């Protein structure tokens, strides 16, 4: 029956563990929004089922009350017919008294029939009341669960996103540790040292070349001095004083 079906769905939703459901969710926010929509839809269905069950219960109560009233009424008619039969019998009208006794018996049969209906209705009322109470209890739990879910939605979404971010950070750190950045730094430092050494070598080479040029220049100046003095010697002749002696020729 419809009431049994809605009770099953209410039970599943009430027992739902939201945190465990989020564990397997690709998008926790969409998951929660869908769950809230499911709760809202089932609440509406449960409210309709409860209303229908309560309506059926009220109908049974009305039928039971009418059957009880009818039973009381037919009992009263049976009593009246029996009293009339007794009065007629006392007056010596036996045939008429027997007719009223038959009417009393007929009224009692009707009264018994309505008594049975009352017992049947009472049983159905008890069952319907139990079902109604279960539906009301499930509906109230569903409403409470939905309110809790709505109030915790932002918190759960935030926690899920934070957990995801932490996982990404840990994955990044794991990748960095695998790469070992210190070895990369060492290689980079070694490259810089080689460049620095090359620069010093080029500087030393440039300095040595300049010194050689100055040395060559100085060597050329000495040669010029020698040539000049040789020319002077040749021009003076053998009787000339030695060059560089400080004497003046006659």
Walk me through this protein's architecture.
The protein has 250 residues and is mainly α. It folds into two domains: 2-164, Helix Hairpins (Orthogonal Bundle), CATH 1.10.287; 178-235. The chain is 90% helix and 0% strand. The chain has five helices and no strands. The protein has helices at 2-14, 18-23, 28-90, 94-179, 181-236. The termini are far apart. The model has no long low-confidence stretch (mean pLDDT 78).
Q: TL;DR?
A:
Helix content is 90%, strand content 0%.
List keywords for this structure.
single chain; 250 residues; mainly alpha; Helix Hairpins; 2 domains; 5 helices; 0% strand
| Biggest sheet architecture | none
| Total DSSP helices | 5
Q: Which CATH architecture of the largest domain would you pick?
A: Orthogonal Bundle
In sequence order, what are the helices and strands, one letter per element? HHHHH
Q: Any idea what the shape is?
A: rod-shaped
Task: Find the count of extended strands (DSSP E, 2+ residues).
Answer: 0
Helix content: over 70%
As a percent range, the share of strand residues is: under 5%
Mean pLDDT: 78
Distance between the termini: 157 Å
**What is the CA-atom radius of gyration, in angstroms?**
61 Å
Q: In terms of structural class, how would the helical and strand content be classed?
A: mainly alpha
* CATH level-1 class of the largest domain: Mainly Alpha
Q: Indicate how many domains the architecture comprises.
A: 2
CATH topology of the largest domain: Helix Hairpins
Low-confidence stretches: none
């Amino acid at each position: 029956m419809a009431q049994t079906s809605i009770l099953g769905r209410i039970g599943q939703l009430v027992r739902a563990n939201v945190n465990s459901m989020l564990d397997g969710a690709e998008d926790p926010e969409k998951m929660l929004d869908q769950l809230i929509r499911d709760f809202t839809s089932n609440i509406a269905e449960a409210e309709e089922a409860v209303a229908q069950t309560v309506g059926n219960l009220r109908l049974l109560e009305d039928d039971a009350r009418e059957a009880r009233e009818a039973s009381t009424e037919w009992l009263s008619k049976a009593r009246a017919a029996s009293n009339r039969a007794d009065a007629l019998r006392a007056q010596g009208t036996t045939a008429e008294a027997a007719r009223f006794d038959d009417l009393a018996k007929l009224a009692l049969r009707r009264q018994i029939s309505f008594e049975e209906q009352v017992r049947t209705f009472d049983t159905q009322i008890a069952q319907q009341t139990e079902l109604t109470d279960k539906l009301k209890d499930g509906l109230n739990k569903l409403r409470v669960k939905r309110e809790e879910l709505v109030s915790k939605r932002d918190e759960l979404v935030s926690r899920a996103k934070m957990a995801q971010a932490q996982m990404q950070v840990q994955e990044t750190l794991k990748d960095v540790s695998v790469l070992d950045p210190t070895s990369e730094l060492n290689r980079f430092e070694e490259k810089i040292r080689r460049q620095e050494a090359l620069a010093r070598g080029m500087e030393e080479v440039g300095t040595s070349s300049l010194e050689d040029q100055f040395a060559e220049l100085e060597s050329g100046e000495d040669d010029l001095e020698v040539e000049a003095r040789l020319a002077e010697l040749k021009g003076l002749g053998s009787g000339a004083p030695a060059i560089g002696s400080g004497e003046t020729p006659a």
